[in-house]
């Protein structure tokens, strides 16, 4: 699999992300209750589940923003830490950008903050299709363009794993289609993309495999075809939720 950035060494042969028996407890509340996850290199992996299922908690633990109660997280074969997190880019919310700056100026600021060469700006812009808008003020960008620029910021350090929380929230149909194309093109270039979403239809169109979380527990992991009931992914998803609800009563 080719590198998305010329001259960048390939990662080790280990999976991009491995999570084993991950727990996060807040007193008696178990936000994560023994979650396992394995995402391969160049894979688009979706985290599905209703609000409060534990998707964002898992992502924060992965990014070192929350300390798990127990469990292991490995990124390209290494435990979460400064070295392994250097392989990760993330966009958890709508990016906070400076409206008065151009896209190019925004990326130059972030390049300095991250101590990366300004020569890495152009490849990041090309990957998200923003080269033509680099000299425009961010204040003139649509929401979809802001998301693109936010992903370019996340890609500046040339990560091998990209973490996106609800990447299509607030986007119009054109923006959703653009975001889908960006995600698939990144995967095609060897970047692993982890997406958290509650929008089943969008995940179904972009992800290679999914995991369904309910109340902090894994209820399904595998292909979308395996999740479907009589060929209907949505029906299978809701059947799974109903079965999970019945099991906790």
TrEMBL record:
Residues 17-240 form the ABC transporter domain. Signal peptide: none annotated. It comes from the Bacteria. One of its GO terms (molecular function) is ATP hydrolysis activity. Pfam families: ABC_tran. The keyword Ribonucleoprotein does not apply. Keywords: ATP-binding, Nucleotide-binding, Transport. Belongs to the ABC transporter superfamily. This is ABC transporter ATP-binding protein.
């Amino acid at each position: 699999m080719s590198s998305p950035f010329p001259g960048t060494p390939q990662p080790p042969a280990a999976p991009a992300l491995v999570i084993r028996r991950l727990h996060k407890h807040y007193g008696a509340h178990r936000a994560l209750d023994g979650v396992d996850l394995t995402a391969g290199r160049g894979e688009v992996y979706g985290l599905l589940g209703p609000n409060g299922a534990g998707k964002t908690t898992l992502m924060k633990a992965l990014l070192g923003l929350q300390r798990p109660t127990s469990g292991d997280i490995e990124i390209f074969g290494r435990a979460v830490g400064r070295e392994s997190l250097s392989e990760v880019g993330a966009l958890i919310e709508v990016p906070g950008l400076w409206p008065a700056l151009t896209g190019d100026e925004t990326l130059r600021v972030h390049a300095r903050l991250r101590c990366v060469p300004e020569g890495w700006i152009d490849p990041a812009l090309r990957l998200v299709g923003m080269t033509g808008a680099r000299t425009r003020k961010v204040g003139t960008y649509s929401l979809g363009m802001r998301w693109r620029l936010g992903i370019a910021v996340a890609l500046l350090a040339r990560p091998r794993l990209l973490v996106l929380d609800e990447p299509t929230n607030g986007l119009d149909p054109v923006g959703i289609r653009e975001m889908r194309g960006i995600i698939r093109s990144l995967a095609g270039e060897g970047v692993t993309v982890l997406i958290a979403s509650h929008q089943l239809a969008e995940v179904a169109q972009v992800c290679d495999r999914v995991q369904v979380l309910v109340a902090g527990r894994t209820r399904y992991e595998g292909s979308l075809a395996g999740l479907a009931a009589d060929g209907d992914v949505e029906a299978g998803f809701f059947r799974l939720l109903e079965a999970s609800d019945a099991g906790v009563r």
